[in-house]
Write a structure and sequence with these properties.
By secondary structure, the chain is of the alpha/beta class. Helix content is 15%, strand content 34%. It contains four helices and 38 strands. The longest helix has 28 residues, at 421-448. The protein is elongated and about 75 Å long.
């Protein structure tokens, strides 16, 4: 009987521990974001226009926005529903429009839809630094989020954007105001969910912007693609260079997955296109035109109607290696010269890593026959032919390479620590279970005495 009692107590403790572990495992669902809430949880608000730091402080005081604009205590605009339909007017309406500020602020947990505005949209930052736009739901606007005119060092993180002409636009201006020297630089666009839009993330002449870990799908405009970077060179400077496109999940796209388009042939853009997953696009997986000295590596590209990777006129000195390329351009598991998976009409591009002598994995080449790696060095014994200028991958991989993945501290959500709650509860549960077991053993021993 006493042993049964101990057994019951121990089983109860195990059940308690297990229940806490379940909470830990489902921790991602414990904290609701605005994207999963009913619109009844928002507060209706008129469009917001802020011009300058002093105006921000005055409106924050009037509206009761928390914070003081410092890095440690930013202003917070949260929980609003701004839902407008513009009839007539200038076509330049915005839900939240901030200009000429360098105070720190956060726009989060808002629902914004501005319909009928052909040069406006949901959120615009113009000549703004130190802003965070996160956890918002944005829909039915011409532009979802616009970062324009010298807006640098801003973060756009974990928003859901649908049914917009441009989901996220980084540009020197709106409409015809395209002075490249005013393009936004050093911004981070990460972990956003973008779907059913005409265009995904567009960077117009910005430098050192990071487009990472976004989920982009069901895009509808073949001319725009999921992610596009437009570049232009001027004497001694290139606009639209040193950008990072990494870790994005791009699928079911009308048009190209990723576009790099230079207005000047041979512009040295130094873009890093790394570890993206691209699947089921009607155009090319990655399309490069006129841009040079870019690195394309670790991407998994499959089932593109066009080429997996296409380098076009003026694209020179690019390096393309350790990509996984499967069934693109109508190819299968056996090689067909009419369905090669890549195109290169540029010059001096290298389809392997010059240091490691590792090329790309081509499913139609690696699987073409079982004896095409006779010395078992992991390299197919014949170079892979690429369409265009008689170019080859000299070191095609026999097996699928292990991709390292992409992670950057700059792309992580700036949270208040809610993500650590499941771990805390797991620790509490273990502690309670141990106390219960020790108490039960002590009680049984005492009863024996």
């Amino acid at each position: 009987m006493k042993l049964n009692t101990v057994g019951v107590v121990i089983i109860a403790a195990v059940i308690l521990l297990g229940s806490v572990a379940v909470v830990h495992g489902s921790g991602k669902n414990m904290t609701k974001s605005a994207n999963s809430e009913s619109r009844e949880n928002y507060t209706a608000h008129a469009p917001i226009k802020i011009v300058g730091n002093a105006d921000f402080a005055a409106q924050a005081k009037k509206e009761g926005w928390p914070g003081n604009g410092s890095a440690g205590n930013p202003y917070v605009l949260s929980g609003y529903e701004i839902n407008e339909i513009e009839v007539g007017g200038t076509g330049n309406s915005w839900g939240i429009d901030v200009e000429n500020t360098n105070v720190h602020f956060v726009i989060k947990n808002c629902y914004i839809a501005i319909q009928g505005s052909f040069h406006g949209g949901s959120i615009k930052l113009s000549n703004v630094t130190n802003a965070k736009i996160e956890d918002n739901t944005i829909s039915q606007s011409y532009v979802g989020i616009a970062i324009v005119y010298k807006s640098n060092n801003n973060t756009v993180n974990e928003n859901t954007i649908s049914n917009c002409s441009y989901a996220i636009l980084l540009a020197s201006g709106m409409g015809m105001d395209w002075n490249v020297q005013y393009a936004p630089n050093d911004n981070v666009v990460s972990h956003n969910k973008i779907y059913s839009d005409s265009g995904g993330v567009s960077v117009e002449y910005g430098n050192r912007d990071k487009i990472t870990d976004n989920d982009i799908f069901n895009m509808k405009d073949e001319s725009m693609g999921a992610i596009s970077i437009r570049t232009k060179s001027a004497p001694q400077v290139v606009y639209g260079a040193y950008n990072v496109i990494a870790g994005n999940n791009i699928h079911d796209i009308q048009g190209n997955g990723i576009n790099i388009d230079s207005g000047n042939i041979g512009a040295k853009t130094h873009e890093n296109i790394e570890n993206n997953n691209i699947k089921n696009v009607t155009g090319d997986g990655i399309f490069v035109s006129g841009a040079s000295e870019n690195t394309i590596t670790g991407n998994n590209i499959s089932y593109s109607k066009g080429y997996a990777i296409s380098l076009n006129l003026g694209s020179t000195h690019n390096e393309i290696y350790q990509n996984i390329l499967i069934h693109n351009h109508g190819s299968g598991d056996t090689f067909n010269s009419s369905h090669v998976q890549a195109w290169d009409s540029g010059e001096n591009n290298t389809w392997y890593n010059p240091s490691t002598k590792m090329g790309n994995y081509w499913a139609d080449w690696a699987n073409n026959n079982a004896s095409n790696d006779k010395n078992h060095d992991g390299i197919v014994d014949w170079p892979y032919p690429i369409g265009g200028n008689n170019t080859y991958d000299k070191y095609p991989a026999k097996s699928v390479p292990v991709l390292k993945g992409y992670s950057s501290a700059n792309t992580q959500k700036n949270s208040s620590g809610a993500g650590s709650l499941p771990v805390m509860w797991l620790g509490v549960g273990i502690g309670i279970a141990v106390v219960v077991i020790v108490a039960a053993i002590w009680w049984i021993k005492r009863k024996k005495e």
